[in-house]
Amino acid sequence: MTITAPAEPQTATDAAGLPAWFTHDRFGMFIHWGLYALPARHEWVKNRERITDADYQKYFDHFDPDLFDAADWARRAREAGMKYVVLTTKHHEGFALWDSALTDYKATNTRFGRDIVREFVDAVRAEGLRVGFYHSLIDWHHPDFTVDGVHPRRDDGEAEIARLNEGRDMARYREYLHGQVSELLTDYGRIDYLFYDFSYRDNDHEDIWGGKGRDDWGSEELMALTKRLQPGIIVNDRLDIPGDLVTPEQYQPDKPMEVDGVRVPWEACQTLNGSWGYDRDNLNVKSVDLLVRMLVDGVSNNGNMLLNVGPTGRGEFDGVARSALAGIGSWMHQHARSVYGAGPSEFRAPAGTVYTQNGNRLYLHLFTWPFEHVHLPDLAGRVAYAQLLNDASEIHYREIPPGTRAQNTGLGGQPAGTLTLTLPIVRPDVAVPVVEL
Ligand code: H79
């Protein structure tokens, strides 16, 4: 087995104590790939459609992604402006994308026969990007993973659950879970990020709905193991114990997130069409404009965006994903400065706009394009120069100095302290125009 050279160590931490790259880089790629790419109708298909192991076996038998090219994935991530890439090493279906010694249910035992995780980490590092793993806590394949409920709810439910769980033993599953994580964090060089998914125990309503949580996963031990094998790794918050960041899913926070009144790093994971796995017939796709707005809106609220791609059963990004990534990349090419290293601003942005700030640079993102003027409260006397970011063309502005009495300035009676930009009539032809101040 070849041991891949670790990426250069990164020890600098940000205010939250996180490796600083994470809140600096802001934008990553999520990749959901597994046997569910073949049915091509959502990664939860086995559960949703109650597909038995025997019936699901055909996807294992026919898994042969001949067009898989990790270098192509990594290059498209970099060209989109993404700085880290997170791959599903195992999703809930239980299929391992690497050559795990602890199971036969793995990519290397399919017709395809290759260690996908190995090719992935090598390719991602070769593009200068950070390596992240997603690992499912849930496992619908493992014989020791206990059943939580029966569907539909029925009177003999308790007895049926007991019958289904005969011979199942979560202690043995825990050992398997920790063992597989050890393999992933030992054999693939430096890993920068780990996304565990997910706990669904309602600790406040155990009597109504138990579900699985920290005791089932052995979360404290698993977290300690993770940090011991990979010092400096960033771990998410889905082990039912606190993590290094919080991970809203397909949800866009509208303000900086806090835990116990303290601002915390967060990352919104988002899909292109609502599905994580490749979903052929789901064309409910977010536009490039919307995706860029989601990214900068997140940064303005101190968050990252982890944008998902679900490669096809042949191993490629489909046309929908490619064009979305290319569109975002062309915006990032000119506007990355308003994203990398940027965060919330103390200033109040006018309606329909979003600020991000990096040091003394303020970035005004215009989600709509006004007629000529945009009025920026409290900025009079504080701006040395203004330009459009896409082409560095100068933007003129007028100011009403703080303390000035209300007057007819020709600027619609704006309050003192307002700085008014004069924009060109024609909106720049970019997803979201940005003025740098
Ligand atoms: O991997 C992606 C999704 O497959 C996974 N997380 C992202 C990153 C995810 N899928 N669903 N969820 C997260 C939340 C779903 C919760 C529920 Fe349920 C599933 C509610 C009902 C079914 C689990 C089982 C919780 C309650 C019952």
UniProtKB/TrEMBL annotation:
Keyword terms: Glycosidase, Hydrolase, Signal
Gene3D superfamilies per the UniProt record, alphabetical: Glycosidases
The keyword Signal is annotated on this UniProt entry: yes
Record-listed E.C. numbers: 3.2.1.51
Glycoside hydrolase family 29 N-terminal domain: residues covered: 11-335
Pfam families membership: Alpha_L_fucos (PF01120)
Functional note: Alpha-L-fucosidase is responsible for hydrolyzing the alpha-1,6-linked fucose joined to the reducing-end N-acetylglucosamine of the carbohydrate moieties of glycoproteins.
Family under the similarity heading: Belongs to the glycosyl hydrolase 29 family.
Record's protein name: alpha-L-fucosidase
